[in-house]
Amino acid sequence: MTKTAAKAETAAPAALSTTVPTPAVLVLEDGRMFRGTSYGVQGTALGEAVFATGMTGYQETITDPSYARQLVVQTAPHIGNTGVNSEDAESRRIWVAGYIVRDAARRPSNWRSERSLDEELIEQGIVGIQGVDTRAITRHLREHKTMRAGIFSGAAAKATDKELLDAVLASTPMEGARLAEEVSVSEAYVVDPQDHGWDGEPRFSIAAIDLGIKAMTPIRFAERGVRVHVLPATSTLEDVKSVNPDGFFMSNGPGDPATADAQVKLLRSVLDEKLPYFGICFGNQILGRALGFGTYKLRYGHRGINQPVLDRRTGKVEITSQNHGFAVDAPLDGATQAPEERYGRVEVSHISLNDDVVEGLACLDIPAFSVQYHPEAAAGPHDAAYLFDRFIDLMADTKAAGTKNTTDSKTEDKK
């Protein structure tokens, strides 16, 4: 080989370099801008800018309905390394309004990967931005609170800075947003234990209201022998009774809990029936409201798979998966009378070790409890899996007490 040929061979890779990346910009409602390049489809995405601290589980994150109408900033620098597969999605589609990453992996490397994350974003029409300083964005949101934002790429990014900011300021804030009905199923379906490794007849049956339920949640019940009737967010007490459940469940979901009057009314009706209740995330906020407590918006929320929570009853610390921007405003100083007095006493069972936010409620006089975090662990640690077993025990105890009361009543009648 000649020296000339050797030089040509060395230079070839540079000649095959990719096309120039398309510019993109992230605009926050306070005027702060972060410039990067397009990721996913080109266009405009508007929503609330929030950050998620998980190092893994990005596919579960973007398909979590609780992220509806939000632009998610991933604090982990490398996103997309393991690609996307058909098994890890937590719902039927991507729900994030936009996606913000530091370093997007264009070529995934994992034996389970079926396509790249970039390809999935493009296929589902999700606007993203990469190459931005996600640590700086996260720090800005921590210091100034989560806020409305917009991602603009391609032709949309050619507008003036003022035009881009005006578009962000014209977008809808998360406060007052009613989103559960938008992400919920329109028709009921059933998740059977036999389809998830359970051998034998179901132990119990529950009605689960889909406010944005993640796919793994009913599976966690089914693995334990519980048949799950997943019902739409618009369901009534009659709909719940029609499936003859042993227990009642309300899922996670997006939006402002202050707008969920219909779900609060439904839960109160269920509690009046003395049906055992378990709620997670949005379901915790609904229980709080049903008991008469208020809710409020957190400064920057809890989103990630490494959130420490204290179980005040046992003194144990759980590392939990969380995704919430609102919280219940309930007293932390022991058992207290619920503002809705017919429900008796209630106590805050779990608190965040980062900021003392209410992470769980336990009713002392009726069969009901809830947590603000995600025990289904998709993605995330399995520290809180016991909560599914606790609900099963609650249903068993309630059923046994009901049987005993019925037997005692019949005995009294005979006398």
UniProtKB/TrEMBL annotation:
Active site: C281 (nucleophile), H374, E376
Pathway assigned in UniProt: Amino-acid biosynthesis; L-arginine biosynthesis; carbamoyl phosphate from bicarbonate: step 1/1; Pyrimidine metabolism; UMP biosynthesis via de novo pathway; (S)-dihydroorotate from bicarbonate: step 1/3
InterPro entries: Anth_synth/Amidotransfase (IPR050472), CarbamoylP_synth_ssu (IPR006274), CarbamoylP_synth_ssu_N (IPR002474), CarbP_synth_ssu_N_sf (IPR036480), Class_I_gatase-like (IPR029062), CPSase_GATase1 (IPR035686), GATASE (IPR017926)
Pfam families for this protein: CPSase_sm_chain, GATase
Residues reported in the UniProt entry to bind L-glutamine: S66, G253, G255, F282, Q285, N323, G325, F326
EC number: 6.3.5.5
GO biological process per UniProt: 'de novo' pyrimidine nucleobase biosynthetic process; 'de novo' UMP biosynthetic process; glutamine metabolic process; L-arginine biosynthetic process
Keywords: Amino-acid biosynthesis, Arginine biosynthesis, ATP-binding, Glutamine amidotransferase, Ligase, Nucleotide-binding, Pyrimidine biosynthesis
Domain of life according to the entry: Bacteria
Residues in Carbamoyl-phosphate synthase small subunit N-terminal domain copies: 22-152
Region described as CPSase: spans on this chain: 1-202
GO molecular function: ATP binding; carbamoyl-phosphate synthase (glutamine-hydrolyzing) activity
First-level EC class: ligase
Reactions performed catalytically: hydrogencarbonate + L-glutamine + 2 ATP + H2O = carbamoyl phosphate + L-glutamate + 2 ADP + phosphate + 2 H(+); L-glutamine + H2O = L-glutamate + NH4(+)
Family indicated by similarity: Belongs to the CarA family.
Subunit structure: Composed of two chains; the small (or glutamine) chain promotes the hydrolysis of glutamine to ammonia, which is used by the large (or ammonia) chain to synthesize carbamoyl phosphate. Tetramer of heterodimers (alpha,beta)4.
Protein role: Small subunit of the glutamine-dependent carbamoyl phosphate synthetase (CPSase). CPSase catalyzes the formation of carbamoyl phosphate from the ammonia moiety of glutamine, carbonate, and phosphate donated by ATP, constituting the first step of 2 biosynthetic pathways, one leading to arginine and/or urea and the other to pyrimidine nucleotides. The small subunit (glutamine amidotransferase) binds and cleaves glutamine to supply the large subunit with the substrate ammonia.
Protein name, as recorded: Carbamoyl phosphate synthase small chain
Organism (species): Pseudarthrobacter psychrotolerans
Organism ancestry: Bacteria, Bacillati, Actinomycetota, Actinomycetes, Micrococcales
